[in-house]
Amino acid sequence: xxxxxxxxxxxxxxxxxxxxxxxxxxxxxxxxxxxxxxxxxxxxxxxxxxxxxxxxxxxxxxxxxxxxxxxxxxxxxxxxxxxxxxxxxxxxxxxxxxxxxxxxxxxxxxxxxxxxxxxxxxxxxxxxxxxxxxxxxxxxxxxxxxxxxxxxxxxxxxxxxxxxxxxxxxxxxxxxxxxxxxxxxxxxxxxxxxxxxxxxxxxxxxxxxxxxxxxxxxxxxxxxxxxxxxxxxxxxxxxxxxxxxxxxxxxxxxxxxxxxxxxxxxxxxxxxxxxxxxxxxxx
Amino acid sequence: xxxxxxxxxxxxxxxxxxxxxxxxxxxxxxxxxxxxxxxxxxxxxxxxxxxxxxxxxxxxxxxxxxxxxxxxxxxxxxxxxxxxxxxxxxxxxxxxxxxxxxxxxxxxxxxxxxxxxxxxxxxxxxxxxxxxxxxxxxxxxxxxxxxxxxxxxxxxxxxxxxxxxxxxxxxxxxxxxxxxxxxxxxxxxxxxxxxxxxxxxxxxxxxxxxxxxxxxxxxxxxxxxxxxxxxxxxxxxxxxxxxxxxxxxxxxxxxxxxxxxxxxxxxxxxxxxxxxxxxxxxxxxxxxxxxxxxxxxxxxxxxxxxxxxxxxxxxxxxxxxxxxxxxxxxxxxxxxxxxxxxxxxxxxxxxxxxxxxxxxxxxxxxxxxxxxxxxxxxxxxxxxxxxxxxxxxxxxxxxxxxxxxxxxxxxxxxxxxxxxxxxxxxxxxxxxxxxxxxxxxxxxxxxxxxxxxxxxxxxxxxxxxxxxxxxxxxxxxxxxxxxxxxxxxxxxxxxxxxxxxxxxxxxxxxxxxxxxxxxxxxxxxxxxxxxxxxxx
Lengths: 283, 536
Fold this sequence. Notes:
The complex is a heterodimer. Chain A is an all-alpha fold.
């Protein structure tokens, strides 16, 4: 057990893992921050006289096979990568959590059908889902987010179901129902407060997975349109020239690794903070 | 008297560097002798047993001396423990289902245990297993079954057989009957007593219940907050306890204040049900299972009715049905003369709110996240009162159960077990009940706290004219409540009438068994003589 669990709320003990997480995420965001503050060159501008240049004058991270500035593309791609991933995770939480809870409180056939659908979604590979959404809605950020949302929603629905079942079996819920409180009141008073912690935790765990998945989809060409610089796209584009210009592959790879590792560490911290065993101990 | 088998002196247990959890204590135990350790939860009785079998929780250490067969157990290296544990010293735990492997038959577990202790094979192994099962009063044919197909009492007998497999001479029994109902408890206690006599076992028997300990022990030690207050022969301890706490404990076990007789009032009864049946549906295709058949109950205003019976008999099903938590049908269901809607939807009607319930386990019936104020507000939620009024009523209800308004912002884990149960009662009172169902509300509480809660119920009945449906297994309490008693067996009422009459002269065979199994705390020296217990 780390010190963080025993700390009082509002006073977060800075464990080495938490510090590492924060630093890694900040590091991954440095290019985007620099671009915001100082401005930068156009990430789409091609300089055919400067293909696959190593890091150096004018191009701090070099150029890629089309002579585009890697740093510019990296910083411009941050928002897209993070945004699509976060959007997908949010959508998953919304779909899984809200629809799951709705189905649970309606009960009966609705519940059975809804959870059968969630199970069906879970067995479909994410790539297949992305292919389907891309075919149906075309390429772009929206379809990718939808694919991410759909493939991660079952996780949130399962967590909602587990919490719901545990709470509904509790004596204090029986007591509430004896006082004539309806399903919705019980849901709001007893289930939701106990669900918030696990949901936040799961979100923190799913977010980095969504970001990686988005990059994988972009790498496979199922992601956002090719002219938009997402990190996955950058890795895909530059991987053909890895021998001539390793920097063009390494830069987005390292950024992606730092961001997801950092977010995972933060997610782990969130999980510990909301751990039901730790919760009892906090005043 | 034979020389002591186990001599403990200055045994102290705790985390090194911190205040000890068990302060230096000592006792000695001879073969054929039973020492009972009694104490409330957290008094250190289980830690003492753990130290004597070398299984203290991680990080804890014991100091002092515990000489067993010439060796000191406290300083025994782990290697030597493996030769001692299970062979010379064995343990019986509280929850038999947790002590048995659910995936193995009783025979398989017993044979495995026997083989680790003795070089037995084939027929000899089977014979040894069967004779152990016979010794603990189990039909050897049951050995082929898996634990979950056995009753709680049979499971505990199997655990005892396992404990005996290494032919130990010291048996540590940690609350071995707490998970069992009264009838089965009496059987297990008599078995344990019998085994100590026949095998010349020494037994350390741990329980929170003095009445249980008095039934088996030759000596009783009373522990409180890690301190052994006094120790002595059972008869002396019961007749002349020296320490004030021991006196309170003995008193809590024995002379409960009898409640005032109910004065008949010219008012419709608080509860009248006829033909009450409770069924549980297991699934669409399964046959619904009836837990309660055709039960008739009547409780006058301000009256008391006690429901007694073995666990699984349907007592709690009746309670849950009356507050809409179980599906039920009845030909007549009235509260204060008005029709009582059954089912959970009916709880929205004001008339249904006149029946309230308090559950067995106060830890489970209060949401750990909610403050006492929020817990109490729930009873008033349906009225939509303004906040000051809600707070005023909540504070008044707390005061009525003997707690102050300073408890309002606290959370359940900041309260003691008794305080939590008081909050649960206050919550029920806020709905303005005329009948309060007490579903085993004393079972999770220590003896001295039980008394306080009983005193509270008694006052509420006098001040509010509250009628009580009391569900419990402690006939001593039932007797003190007076009023009526209904005896439930397998979902049917087999005997009903004034508590005094029914318990003094039970007519039905099941009631007779219940009464025989109850544990009177007698100061008579009968405890030292060979056991004369009912073999129900």
